[in-house]
């Protein structure tokens, strides 16, 4: 009843502002009701509208520009695939395909383990024939045969291991005594190795069967808890597998569920005009075995009715619980007691009212747990995103720091190179002669940074020249005075 967001957006953009006065032709009455509820637009449905919609679909490529018949066919195919995928998308925890495969594999394993165990019995029976009567169970026989090996090596020290396998001290003692007086033939070590290897494989298959049965039980508690609580996991899984799916089983009437699995007997009875079968797969339930011979047909009909109710509850409930299955099982127990003692059972209405109250409480608790799990999951996701963001920021900061360090290191290297060049330029060679040294000093240019252009004023040059002339005159006077004194 909720209008799809894409359709709502399309109608909002396509319809005029005064859309309450518009009458929209819709081919589906449910869609028209949804449009009226959401948008307040009057919708009309009928034969004329259906014909118009058919004509629009037929000539849609001609009505829309750029849309060819080929692209329209592709769009229809894609829509069909999307619709099919949406129908197939169920909750992964409630997929009944896994139940069908697991119950089929379980039946196949039962047949194979039985066949292989009989092969071990006939093979090891040549060596120890008395063991078959002492240990009749298949998997236990294979374990005992693997443990014993050569019966002549069995002694009092092996009693403890035998008791662990057989779980009975008297039976273990009987095996020991029978091995001492057995009439079996001797066996070679190579044959014994092959028997032990085959026994080991049969034991592993039986262990896998136990694990598969636990898996089937857990899947049935998730997919069909009411049906499994009413009739058992194995019988419920066989009903689902025979019907094809839980939805198909829910669609069957109670009369079909009653004889489900006995189709061959039914058609033979219809052909020969004999008595039709009273039960099919539900015969394996404990209720029919506990009922008296004259009440087996009654209880099977009643049980099929309750199985139909349980399967429909499991199929169409949002949060499946085993409350209804437990209540239905109590009703079948009361009906069995009524057939035996005559005690009247409770009415179905009373039982269902109690079941609805309990189921609401269970569903509320389950939803509360789911909300808690969702909150925890969101918190973990938020923390993870924050940690990723912090790590990204740290990485960005580290990259920036590395770039800055690289820049600083490059600058320092440049400075060091300049200093070395300046030191090399300032470094002077050892003087050999004064004249050479003075020439080198005059010819050696200063580095660019340390060159200083000194501009001396003209007045100072003139004063220096006058002083030099005065000094020369004084020297001449002194020389002349010294000559005169020598002459005297």
UniProtKB/TrEMBL annotation:
**UniProt keywords, alphabetically:** Nucleus, Ribosome biogenesis
Which regions form coiled coils?
none
Q: Which GO terms describe its biological process?
A: ribosome biogenesis
Q: Which domain of life is it from?
A: Eukaryota
Residue segments, region Disordered: 392-488
Segments of skewed composition (Basic residues) = 471-480
One function term, GO molecular function aspect: snoRNA binding
Q: Which GO terms describe its cellular component?
A: box C/D methylation guide snoRNP complex; small-subunit processome
Stretches of Acidic residues bias are at 423-444, 457-468
Where does the Nop domain lie? 223-341
Q: Which PROSITE patterns match?
A: NOP
Q: Does the keyword Ribonucleoprotein apply?
A: no
Under the heading InterPro entries, the entry gives: Nop56/Nop58, Nop_C, Nop_dom, Nop_dom_sf, NOSIC
* Complex formation: Part of a large pre-ribosomal ribonucleoprotein (RNP) complex, that consists of at least 62 ribosomal proteins, 45 nonribosomal proteins and both pre-rRNA and mature rRNA species. Within this complex directly interacts with TCOF1 in an RNA-independent manner. Core component of box C/D small nucleolar ribonucleoprotein (snoRNP) particles; the core proteins SNU13, NOP56, NOP58 and FBL or FBLL1 assemble stepwise onto the snoRNA. Interacts with NOP1 and NOP58. Interacts with NUFIP1, RUVBL1 and RUVBL2; RUVBL1:RUVBL2 seem to bridge the association of NOP56 with NUFIP1.
Cited function: Involved in the early to middle stages of 60S ribosomal subunit biogenesis. Required for the biogenesis of box C/D snoRNAs such U3, U8 and U14 snoRNAs. Part of the small subunit (SSU) processome, first precursor of the small eukaryotic ribosomal subunit. During the assembly of the SSU processome in the nucleolus, many ribosome biogenesis factors, an RNA chaperone and ribosomal proteins associate with the nascent pre-rRNA and work in concert to generate RNA folding, modifications, rearrangements and cleavage as well as targeted degradation of pre-ribosomal RNA by the RNA exosome.
Stated family: Belongs to the NOP5/NOP56 family.
Q: What is this protein called?
A: Nucleolar protein 56
Which organism is this entry from?
A: Agelaius phoeniceus
Q: Which gene holds the coding sequence for this protein?
A: Nop56
């Amino acid at each position: 009843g909720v209008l799809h967001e894409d359709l709502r957006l399309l109608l909002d953009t396509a319809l005029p502002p005064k859309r309450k006065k518009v009458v929209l032709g819709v081919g589906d009455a449910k869609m028209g009701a949804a449009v009226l509820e959401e948008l307040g637009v009057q919708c009309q449905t009928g034969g004329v509208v259906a014909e118009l919609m058919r004509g629009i679909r037929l000539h849609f490529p001609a009505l829309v520009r750029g849309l060819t018949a080929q692209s329209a066919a592709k769009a229809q195919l894609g829509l069909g695939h999307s619709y099919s995928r949406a129908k197939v998308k169920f909750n992964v925890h409630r997929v009944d395909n896994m139940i069908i495969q697991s119950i089929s594999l379980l039946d196949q394993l039962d047949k194979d383990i039985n066949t292989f165990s009989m092969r071990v019995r006939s093979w090891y029976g040549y060596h120890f024939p008395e063991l078959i009567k002492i240990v009749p169970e298949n998997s236990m026989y294979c374990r005992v045969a693997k443990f014993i090996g050569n019966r002549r090596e069995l002694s009092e020290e092996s009693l403890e291991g035998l008791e662990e396998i057989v779980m009975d001290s008297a039976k273990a003692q009987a095996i020991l005594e029978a091995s001492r007086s057995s009439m079996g033939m001797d066996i070679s070590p190579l044959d014994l190795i092959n028997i032990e290897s085959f026994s080991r494989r049969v034991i592993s298959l039986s262990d896998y069967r136990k694990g598969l049965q636990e898996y089937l039980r857990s899947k049935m508690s998730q997919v069909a808890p009411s049906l499994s609580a009413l009739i058992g996991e194995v019988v419920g899984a066989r009903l689902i597998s025979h019907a094809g799916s839980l939805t198909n089983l829910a669609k069957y009437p109670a009369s079909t569920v009653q004889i489900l699995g006995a189709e061959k007997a039914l058609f033979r009875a219809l052909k020969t005009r004999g008595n039709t079968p009273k039960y099919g797969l539900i015969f394996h339930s404990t209720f029919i075995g506990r009922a008296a011979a004259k009440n087996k047909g009654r209880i099977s009909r009643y049980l099929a009715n309750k199985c139909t109710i349980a399967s429909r509850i499991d199929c169409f409930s949002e949060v499946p619980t085993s409350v209804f299955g437990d209540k239905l099982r109590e009703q079948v127990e009361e009906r069995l007691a009524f057939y035996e003692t005559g005690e009247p059972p409770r009415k179905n209405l009373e039982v269902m009212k109690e079941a609805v109250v309990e189921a609401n409480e269970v569903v509320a608790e389950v939803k509360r747990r789911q909300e808690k799990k969702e909150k925890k999951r969101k918190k973990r996701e938020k923390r993870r995103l924050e940690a990723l963001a912090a790590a990204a920021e740290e990485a960005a900061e580290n990259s920036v720091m590395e770039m800055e360090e690289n820049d600083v290191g490059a600058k320092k290297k440049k400075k060091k190179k300049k200093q070395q060049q300046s030191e090399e330029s300032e470094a002077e060679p050892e003087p050999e002669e004064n004249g050479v040294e003075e020439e080198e000093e005059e010819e050696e240019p200063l580095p660019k940074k340390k060159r200083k252009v000194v501009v001396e004023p003209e007045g100072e040059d003139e004063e220096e020249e006058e002083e030099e002339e005065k000094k020369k005159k004084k020297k001449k006077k002194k020389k002349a005075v010294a000559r005169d004194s020598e002459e005297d």
